Amino acid sequence: MSNGTAVTAEKSFFEEGTTKQKTGILSWLLSTDHKRIGIMYLVTITIFFFVAALIGVLMRLELIAPGETIMEAQTYNTLFTLHGVIMIFLFIIPGIPAIFGNFFLPLQIGAEDVAFPRLNLLSYWIYLGGSVLVLLSLFMQGGPIDTGWTFYVPYSVRTTTSVSLPLFAAFILGFSSILTGLNFITTIHRMRAPGMGFFRMPLFVWSTYATAWIQVIATPVIAITILLVILERVFGVGIFDPSLGGDPLLFQHMFWIYSHPAVYIMILPAMGVVSEIIPTFSRRTIFGYGPIAMSSLAIAFVGYLVWAHHMFTSGISDTARVLFSLLTYIVALPSGVKIFNWVATMYKGSIDPKPPFIWVMSFIFLFSIGGLTGLVVGSITADIHLHDTYFVVAHFHYVMFGGTGTIVFAALYYWLPKMFGRMYNMKWANINAALFFIAFNLLYFPKFILGYMGMPRRYYDYLPEFTDLQVISTIGSWVMIITLFSIFFNLYNGIRKGPIAHANPWGGVTLEWQTTSPPPLLNFDRKITVEHEPYDFSQLKELDYESK
Amino acid sequence: MSQSDSAAIGHVHRDDIGAKMGMWVFLFTEVLLFGGMFLVYAVYRFQHPELFKLAAFELNTALGTFNTIVLLTSSLTMVLAIVAIQKNKKKLSLFYLASTVGFALVFMAVKYFEWTAKFSHGIYPGSDELLSRQNGEILFFGLYFIMTGLHALHVIIGVIIILFLYVFVKRGKVTHDNYVKLENGGLYWHLVDLIWIFLFPLFYLIH
Amino acid sequence: MEQGNTEHKEHSHGYGLYVLVWLGLIALTSITVTVAGVDFGNIALPIALFIAAIKSGLVINYFMHIKFEEPIFKVFLLLSGMTLLVIFILTFFDVFYR
Question: What is the pLDDT of residues A314-338, one digit of tens each?
């Protein structure tokens, strides 16, 4: 910092680990270093992302023409279930917190590690165990699960496909999520460097904090719901089965009591990453630090009040429908606060359109469409027409993939030089960003129109009049998968043999840019004392940053 | 992973408040877990008030009351074990921990007799006797078995934790100036008690 | 909230306080069992829950030591308690009016 300590040639965390073995697979699998755990999550989650993406491509291929094209209806049922289960439970929920939260949360608050490093490793192992169970369930008697990722009763209690095992896997994965959240909450409260008050924390830390609370408070509800369904299947206990007096709507309530806040587990960390990237590439302090930080907590809180908007056509009471519709609109407020503050940050900034920034621009556009169409389905009257159609499918892909997915890439482009000490090819990064944007809209925008015209979701067949738009969407899926592989190879090549990256390639001022790339085992070569506000770019002179 | 691994890189840091904070956050997840089941209970009791009453008559209030007192007493001995270690009375602390386990085993034994009595009357999930009854009663007994069963599972986990703590105290890993492990184990045990405090009136005291 | 070794502040209480709390809990248990024998009609459940709430208050404050912990612990407790309450209330907006 101000004393201008020279960066000594210390060993990076790749060269020095926490295990007795210095190298080899065990030095990773047994490592309690938050950076190694973050990278292990990165590798595992990348694999599952590509598996689920390829399943998505197969589904689109089936839909290229009406009628049975390449698979039977039952296969299609299995594929959309797997696509949902893998994308949600194995990719997007752990995604940003587990990869970037693990790697950068301690760095950004100037800590050596998380509060409970061994628990952190356990959390990874549980994640791995849960994902193995998901895969195992595909080969169980009865065939792979076909309920959709929502596991609605009574079908999930009665179907003969293998439901209990993937449900148990989701239960296990919940533990991983809870332990990560618990770890982050304690880390943020107890491990901040001297001088870093709560209101000097980077906004990514704030959003991770809000996310961690949702993980801790919401996940147990799905855990118990899942457990009840398993017990009902295995022991015939009457809980949700209507023939035994059970109330299937109660299952839906409990499912969404978790799964709606879970939507914010997915999007909040992404919003945090956006709040990091925009100031860095605008060379301007964030506009409205306080409101952005508070809006994360507000979203986390309001996220608990809106779950039944997934059930407008399920037969819940009119009073509840009106109430939940009203409450749903409230979510738009804190989300709007964020969007406007981001845009205001860019105003009169010195914008440097490097790849991470371009991805963020793409995010703002796609996420806004996702968010605004959310208001459409949030109103009862419109939802009765649009419920369970492609419109909803398009809406949540714009939010989840266009929102969080885009930001997973933005975060990779932003932090990859810090994680691996190497840079990717900028030109290809820009081309891929543009391709992604085109492919995305080609793939998902037709679904808005299809849904409005009445195309229901989860069908492997459709009426001939939907053919044109379905074909456009399928072509979009091809461009998308090519782009995804192109992104992968560009980043992979960068990691393997890209040019060496400096400690601070973008001119960021949060703490992770004030250590070497990649960082040493204990993150910093000196005691950290925080003397600046989080986005004070006047520090750049002290940090000897030269923009070329 | 053992202690020596983290010692090898020389940054074992001790933060008792942080450890307790982590434990409390974990306890919240337990509260929400049982909270979900209490929600199911609330909805079904609201939908079938009379049948819940009818079914509850078959539970043995005397045994339930006895178990409540046993569990409350085990909570007392648990907290006394911490006081003892604070005063550096290792033997006394071990005695209290052992009695906590003893009370827990009594609780489990009573639970065992309650359940087997129900089973011998043909009341267990999916039994013909139970299925011949009305919906509200099926739901009541379904919830009874699941909620007390899950609670019993927590008692067993609690016993295992306390046994570990017993060994820690005995071997001097938990001492009068480093007893946060004992406190956290205690927190878990009190949570088990806390849940029973609500289960008891909701199942045994509906008249 | 600095990083480093923050060890216990001592709030050592004697055995007496806890025995007293235990006696209170036993007393409340006998009250709730006795009261359950009387037919209070609709308010029987609220009475039972009220007594259970007092009992849990005693356990949380004394046995679980929350009374003597840092304020942030109380905020956390309030937060999760409120969440549970909100979930119950909103679910009953459906169940009650259905």
Answer: 999 999 999 999 999 998 899 999 9
What are the Cα distances from residue A525, in Å, to A117, A339, A516, A521? 20, 37, 9, 9
Are A413 and A366 a contacting pair, CB within 8 Å? no
Our CA-based measurement puts residue A501 at a distance from the nearest CA of chain B, in whole angstroms, of 27
DSSP A139-160: TSTT-S--S-TT--TTHHHH--
Which residues are bridge partners to A511 per DSSP? none
Closest partner residue to A216 (CB to CB) among B6, B29, B142 is B29
Contact yes or no for C1/A189 (Cβ under 8 A)? yes
Two tokens at A504? 């601070």
**What span, in angstroms and rounded, lies between the C-alpha atoms of B185 and B183?**
5
Given an 8 Å threshold on Cβ–Cβ distance, is C98 in contact with A217?
no
DSSP A253-304: HHHHHHHHHHHHHHHHHHHHHHHHHHHHHHTSPPTTHHHHHHHHHHHHHHGG
Lookup result for tokens 């981001």:
A342
Q: Is B192 helix (H, G, I), strand (E, B) or coil?
A: helix
Probe site for chain C from B52, B180, B197, B199 (most C CB atoms < 10 A): B197
Complex prediction ipTM: 0.92
Reported as a single tens digit per residue, the pLDDT across B105-153 is 999 999 999 999 999 999 998 888 888 999 999 999 999 999 999 999 9
In sequence order, the 6+-apart residues with CB closer than 8 A to the CB of C90 are A305, A307, A308, A320, A323, A324
Residue C3 touches chain A, beta carbons under 8 Å: yes
Contacts B39 to A, Cβ<8 Å: 250, 254
